[in-house]
């Protein structure tokens, strides 16, 4: 069972006729939100903002004149209330506008901007982008492999034909060697074992041995 937490509401600095974003949550939805005069004993609502179906962010048009001192109240479904810090409405910094007409709300219930939905959407977009980059990389690599595989082999192209994928290249790729009339002789010469040439000491030892045999026979 989820632990119940009291609701909260946060109000930013306010400038007349500009949008302000009220952050509210916890408690139990839906939420009733309205401004009151700061320090008011009876907490009379100064404006009928539509009921918010879920926690999130409410974009509210500051339709109070400059100098108004207001506090926001949030009441959840079980009747628990919370208050924001008081805010004094300021004139617009760029235009100097100090007065603003009141906003007319419809009777339909509003819905706060779902912060979790926004975060989830951003994360989903990041995942889609990463998957797109991965697909592009794999597609490009496979396309490059197909291009290389379609090229005609050269005498030095390695082939994988032995057990455990032993690479054989060069003159071992006999099926790719361009044979000529002298190719067979060159291969025989390459495969022939080196000629044995006895050392000078071995020849001298044999000569001395032969001389001793001749002397013994005579």
Question: Mind sketching the topology for me?
Answer:
Blueprint: E1 8-10, E2 19-25, E3 32-37, E4 56-61, E5 69-75, E6 81-83, E7 87-88, H1 115-150, E8 159-160, E9 167-168, H2 183-191, H3 200-217
Antiparallel strand pairs: 1-2, 2-4, 3-5, 5-6, 5-7, 8-9
Keywords: Membrane, Transmembrane, Transmembrane helix
Transmembrane segments: 115-138
Biased composition (Basic and acidic residues): 201-211
Structure description:
The protein is α+β, with helices and mostly antiparallel strands and 218 residues long. The protein folds into 2 domains: 1-113, Immunoglobulin-like (Sandwich); 123-173, no CATH class. 29% of the residues lie in helices and 17% in strands. It contains 3 helices and 9 strands, in the order E-E-E-E-E-E-E-H-E-E-H-H. It has helices spanning 115-150, 183-191, 200-217, and strands spanning 8-10, 19-25, 32-37, 56-61, 69-75, 81-83, 87-88, 159-160, 167-168. Strands 3, 5, 6 and 7 form a 4-stranded antiparallel sheet that branches. A hairpin with a 5-residue loop joins strand 5 (69-75) and strand 6 (81-83). The model is unreliable at 163-171 (pLDDT under 50).
């Amino acid at each position: 069972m989820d632990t119940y937490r009291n609701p909260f509401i946060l109000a930013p600095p306010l400038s007349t006729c500009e949008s302000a974003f009220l952050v509210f949550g916890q408690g139990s939805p839906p939420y009733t939100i309205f401004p009151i005069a700061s320090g008011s004993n009876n907490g009379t609502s100064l404006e009928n903002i539509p009921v918010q179906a879920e926690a999130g962010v409410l974009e509210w048009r500051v339709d109070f004149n400059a100098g108004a001192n207001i506090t926001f109240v949030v009441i959840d479904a079980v009747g628990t209330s919370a208050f924001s810090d008081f805010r004094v409405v300021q004139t617009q910094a760029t235009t100097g506008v100090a007065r603003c007409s009141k906003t007319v709300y419809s009777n339909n219930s509003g819905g706060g901007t779902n912060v979790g939905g926004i975060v989830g959407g951003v994360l989903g977009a990041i995942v889609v982008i990463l998957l797109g980059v991965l697909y592009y990389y794999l597609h490009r690599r496979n396309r490059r492999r197909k291009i290389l595989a379609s090229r005609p082999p050269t005498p030095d192209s390695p082939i994988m034909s032995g057990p455990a994928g032993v690479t054989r290249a060069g003159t071992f790729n006999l099926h790719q060697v361009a044979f000529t009339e002298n190719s067979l002789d060159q291969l025989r010469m390459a495969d022939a074992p080196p000629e044995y040439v006895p050392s000078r000491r071995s020849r001298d030892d044999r000569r001395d041995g032969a001389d001793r045999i001749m002397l013994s026979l005579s």
